[in-house]
Specification:
With about 800 residues, the protein is of the alpha+beta class. The chain is about 20% helix and about 25% strand. The protein is built from 17 helices and 36 strands. The longest helix is centred in the first third of the chain and has 29 residues, at about 70-95.
Length: about 800
């Protein structure tokens, strides 16, 4: 129904626009005008437009120029020459009409505000190729999981950095040194501890922003104002993306892929809203950086790789090819252009926004800590330009990514905006490690794609563009997961360089990286479970029994039935706990033994959004956890409790993920604490990215029976179930039902609000949508709501599930989330 109303409205607008352009018959000239411009003319009598000239520069010769500086200058000079020649007549006409216009050489375009009559005249000119909108538009996709920021530290390498195996490349001596990374986004807190030392404009004692920073926002600008003379971020998004590329405070926060690369920046959005003009201006600055007055360009100072965690949606005014020439010019100059694919999944053909849809852009999808493609990650093939192009090209970590945030803090965000910077940083590592690839865009793309890890889950499996998600490459995640170590090792070094082989784990433990002089291990060491002696020792005929009980921690200590108990030793055995939680091994010989329980698959409804609240409170220091509570809260298994764990619990609750990462990695939903009796030695579970020890009880040289070998069971993620309030303490965090408002029609679609019915820390709610409308659904936290949010959409039933957790109670009547349905 909504779609039909929208189509009728569009038909009316087009009719009005045709009336305004009555003197322009249906012809090639009228087809030059983008429909979004026609709609705005019908409404306003004019529109801000980008006039793209028909003649575009042939830069193919740049590929053969070996000298980096010469290549940059060649591209700059050719673009300038073409723009001067082809724009001359049009600029003269506009001056005669006293119409102000801005010239861009990076895409051979002029931007101006034009009346309907002028637009009709421009469309009739032979030197004009296209007239497209320059209206403000939302450049950043709303993250599916909201941020949780706190002034905290994290002494480990972030999960995404480990997942792409960047630390192993660091161990080879490569951290991005000599490579310059560019980022255009909402701005940057340039003096944040995690990015300051990497800023090209910082020499250790003072800053020089010439050639290192440009602000394309010339009015407005929020807290940063306009024409900011130093890098500034009025949103937070840009600081976060930059941190993932190069961030490291040299103390506790190893958040970036290439911590020794340098960075330069450009603000292309005003509080998250940009225009084609602001995006082109940043591309132009990066191809030939200028001083703070916009003068004295120097193409030799252009960056090596550019991060673009933003999109320019056709649905909000940007035509499919508006930025195509700018991206192709950057590539011709030898700048690797990485672009986030977008957050419009999980349907096919949702890579719709420039610049992600272009062949010249290296587009990146997002996956989570379990190596499962994020539901929000946009898919191909690209249909908006009629190409049917396969996208994305590759995928990278993009769910619950911790990175820098303004005011010297850190935050967790999700989105392909978070995935893209992993690839940007990876290119910096690759180009330092293998300098023969620098500026060779085609070869670099081939290396990254051919070395990608294809083991990436898609739940449920899908077929997009006739290609299944089990086929490599595909339109769901491209070639697979980014693997920078495999990429480096796939290219011969110009000088002998130590290499490391692929390990069996997807993440690395929190250990210091070897220095450049150290040699990394090339293979994992395997330790046998039984020792071998020179003289065989006869096995005594003593046989004994071993038995115990497994009980769940919390409540009345109820029995855990169906747990698999493995007896490890000379003759391994297994058994299963019965309905009372009891297990036993009736005939055991002399030797070194240990018992290890495990259990998988019945977390079920025990995990709720309240558990996420407790995890948040532990992470923020508002709750002192018991041993059991801390074990249950560490859903990721990195040894810490952070907002990542809380968000994982929420995602599990709403169905975005089907298993928590630690459970997947360890093959068990449960952790077990052994209770030693009679000489046994209990072990507290040691949970880390490379190790899953489930609380074994060890029996060195067991020669007699061992009874009451009990275990206490802790369910991963079920934090509240493991918590017993001390005497006199406050009640547990409250959960509440929230109510969705009736649909509220707006100019941009339909909006619904989620309002609390009573004061609570945890909220769960659901509603149903027309299945045809699901791809356009966006849900975000209400402004000022400091909470963690996750939602999932069932494309078969239209069911939308939402879960939200806050460290402190949210008051009754508060609007905590907003759902927006935009017509397509």
């Amino acid at each position: 129904m909504l779609g039909n109303h929208w189509l009728r409205a569009l038909a009316l607008l087009l009719a009005l626009a045709r009336a305004a352009l009555a003197e322009l018959p249906e012809s090639e000239d009228s087809r030059k005008i983008d429909p979004s411009v026609i709609r705005q003319m019908a409404r306003d009598g004019g529109a801000p437009v980008v006039v793209l000239l028909r003649d575009q520069c042939d830069l193919s010769a740049a590929q053969s120029i070996a000298d980096e500086a010469a290549r940059g200058w060649y591209v700059y000079n050719e673009l300038r020459r073409q723009a001067r020649r082809s724009q001359r007549a049009l600029r003269r006409t506009l001056r005669q009409k006293h119409i102000r216009a801005r010239s861009f050489w990076v895409a051979n375009a002029l931007t101006l505000r034009a009346s309907s009559e002028l637009i009709a005249e421009l469309a009739g000119r032979a030197d004009v190729g296209r007239i497209e909108s320059d209206a403000p538009l939302a450049g950043i996709d709303d993250p599916i999981t909201a941020e949780f920021s706190a002034a905290s530290t994290n002494a480990t390498v972030e999960w995404g950095i480990s997942n792409i195996r960047a630390p192993q490349v660091w161990a080879l001596g490569f951290k991005g040194q000599g490579i310059v990374v560019a980022d255009q986004d909402t701005g940057f807190q340039w003096n944040h501890p995690a990015v300051l030392s990497q800023y090209r404009g910082w020499n250790g004692t003072m800053a020089d922003h010439n050639y290192n920073w440009h602000d394309s926002i010339h009015s407005g600008g929020g807290t940063c104002g306009s024409n900011a003379g130093a890098p500034c971020d009025d949103n937070g998004h840009g600081t976060h993306t930059l941190g993932t590329t190069i961030g490291d405070d040299a103390v506790n926060n190893q958040i970036g892929v290439a911590p020794q690369a340098r960075w330069i920046g450009c603000r292309n959005m005003d509080r998250g809203t940009g225009t084609p003009t602001t995006y082109m201006e940043c591309f132009q600055f990066f191809l030939a950086p200028t001083d703070q007055n916009g003068l004295n360009p120097d193409a030799a100072l252009r960056p090596h790789v550019m991060n673009n965690s933003w999109g320019c949606p056709p649905s909000e005014g940007c035509a499919a090819n508006t930025l195509k020439a700018a991206v192709e010019a950057a590539e011709a100059s030898g700048i690797f252009v990485e672009v986030s694919a977008g957050n419009s999944g999980s349907n096919c053909s949702t890579v719709n926004d420039p610049p992600a849809l272009y062949a010249s852009s290296f587009s990146v999808g997002a996956y989570d800590i379990s190596n499962v493609l994020a539901a929000f990650s946009s898919r191909g093939p690209v249909l908006v330009d009629g190409s049917g192009r396969r996208k994305p090209d590759i995928s990278a970590p993009g769910v619950n990514v911790r990175s820098a945030w303004p005011n010297n803090t850190y935050a967790n965000l999700s989105g392909t905006s978070m995935a893209g910077p992993h690839v940007t940083g990876a290119v910096a590592l690759l180009w330092e490690a293998r300098p023969q690839l620098r500026r060779d865009i085609v070869a670099t793309k081939t290396v990254l794609q051919s070395s990608a890890d294809p083991t990436l889950g898609v739940n449920p499996p899908q077929t997009c563009g006739g290609v299944t998600s089990g086929t490599i490459p595909n339109n769901s995640f491209g070639y697979g997961r980014l693997d920078i170590l495999a990429a480096v090792n796939s290219v011969p070094a110009s000088t002998p360089t130590a290499t490391a082989t692929r390990t069996q784990t997807s993440t690395a433990s929190a250990t210091a990286s070897p220095t450049q002089s150290e040699t990394p291990n090339s293979t994992a060491t395997v330790t046998a479970t039984a020792s071998v002696t020179a003289t065989p020792t006869p096995t005594p005929s003593v046989r004994s029994a071993l038995s115990g009980t497994i009980r769940y921690f919390g409540g009345a200590g109820q029995a855990v039935s169906g747990a698999l108990v493995t007896l490890q030793g000379p003759t391994p055995q297994t058994t299963t706990s019965n309905t009372t939680g009891a297990y036993s091994f009736d005939s055991i010989g002399f030797g070194d033994w240990s018992t290890v329980p495990s259990k998988l698959g019945d977390i079920g409804g025990a995990i709720t959004s309240i558990d996420a609240v407790y995890a948040l409170q532990i992470a923020a220091g508002l709750r002192v956890p018991t041993t059991f509570e801390r074990l249950a809260a560490d859903a990721s298994g990195d040894g810490n409790v952070s907002a990542i764990d809380a968000s994982l619990i929420l995602q599990y609750r709403v169905g975005l993920i089907t298993a928590l990462p630690l459970a997947t990695r360890c093959g068990s939903d449960w952790l077990f604490l052994g209770t030693p009796v009679g000489g046994g030695q209990g072990a507290v579970p040691q949970i880390s990215p490379n190790q899953c020890v489930m609380g074994a009880i060890n029996y060195p040289s067991l020669a007699t029976g061992a009874t009451q070998q009990d275990f206490t069971a802790v369910v991963i993620g079920d934090v509240s179930g493991n918590w017993i309030p001390p005497q006199g303490s406050a009640a547990r965090a409250a959960a509440a039902v929230a109510q969705w408002s009736r649909p509220i029609p707006t100019a941009r679609g339909v909006t619904r609000e989620l309002r609390l019915q009573q004061t609570a820390n945890a909220i769960e709610a659901e509603f149903f949508l027309d299945r045809e409308a699901i791809p356009a659904l966006r849900i975000r936290r209400a402004p000022g709501t400091h909470a963690l949010l996750a939602y999932a959409v069932d494309s078969q039933t239209g069911r939308v599930r939402v879960a939200l957790a806050s460290t402190t109670p949210l008051q009754a009547g508060t609007v905590v989330a907003v759902a927006r349905l935009t017509p397509r």
